[in-house]
From TrEMBL:
Superkingdom of the organism of origin: Bacteria
TM region positions: 20-44, 89-112, 118-140, 152-175, 187-207
Protein name: Small-conductance mechanosensitive ion channel
Gene3D superfamilies: 1.10.287.1260
Key words, A-Z: Membrane, Transmembrane, Transmembrane helix
InterPro entries named in the record: MSC_TM_helix, MscS_archaea/bacteria_type
Native source organism of the sequence: Candidatus Nealsonbacteria bacterium RBG_13_42_11
A Pfam family matched in the record: MS_channel_1st_1
Database matches in PANTHER family: SMALL-CONDUCTANCE MECHANOSENSITIVE CHANNEL
Length: 225
């Protein structure tokens, strides 16, 4: 009886040791792959950032509200660094996935695959944000210049309304792209549109009609002049 217990214990320890010895080469290989991948990812990210800076990519955003938007998001990085950072972390996840698959951690590998599958949504959302930064600045300036060119004193208000309208729809589009509470976002979007329509109707019903008529009359006079 004692001999059987001793034999089973020794056999279990031997099996554990053999499994550990067999796991060491896999662990070393996974570490090497990830470390090499990390340096490659960092290098490529820096290269992309430097190339974008050399082709004056940041200047596209200097006239816009990039710094202001990044400050609101508590992110201290320029446009080139932002793109370079995305490239870096995508490559890091790819190499980490390779290392995990070497180790045979199927569940963790599945999770990383899901992360990689989700990354295109993040990239598209980032592109929406970048385009919005550029679009808001251009549209705001065009609207203000157009309204002020006909000597109407509502340029700042009109441009502000258009600016925040674009940002609201952009934020909703980003959240939808990221898949954050899609049913809620769709309901919120429908509600915002309905609210704008109702507010517009109430404004006209409560006297806004006269104000709008005055504005249009003012614009008409300026155009004739």
């Amino acid at each position: 009886m004692v001999f059987d217990w001793y034999y089973v214990t020794i056999q279990s320890l031997e099996n554990l040791w053999e499994a550990f010895l067999g796991f060491i080469p896999l662990l070393i290989g996974a570490i090497i792959v990830f470390v090499i991948g990390w340096f490659i990812s960092v290098g490529v990210g820096k290269l992309v950032t430097e190339v974008l800076k050399r082709i004056k990519f940041n200047q596209i955003f200097e006239k816009g509200n990039w710094d202001e938007a990044m400050a609101k998001a508590d992110i201290k990085v320029d446009a080139s660094g932002f793109i370079g950072g995305i490239v870096k972390w995508v490559m890091v996840i790819v190499f980490l996935l390779a290392a995990v698959e070497i180790l045979g951690f199927s569940e963790f590998a599945y999770f990383l695959q899901k992360v990689l599958a989700y990354l295109p949504n993040v990239i598209v959302a980032a592109l929406i944000f970048v385009v919005t930064v550029i679009l808001v600045d251009i549209v705001e300036k065009i609207v203000r210049a157009t309204v002020e060119s006909i000597k109407v004193g509502y340029g700042a208000m009109v441009s502000a309304v258009i600016k925040w309208s674009i940002w609201i729809f952009a934020i909703l589009a980003i959240l939808h792209q990221l898949g954050i509470a899609k049913p809620f976002m769709e309901t919120l979007f429908t509600g915002l549109v309905a609210l704008l329509v109702i507010s517009f109707g109430i404004a006209f019903g409560l006297g806004g009609k006269e104000v709008a008529a005055e504005i249009l009359q003012d614009v008409k006079k300026k155009l004739k002049d």
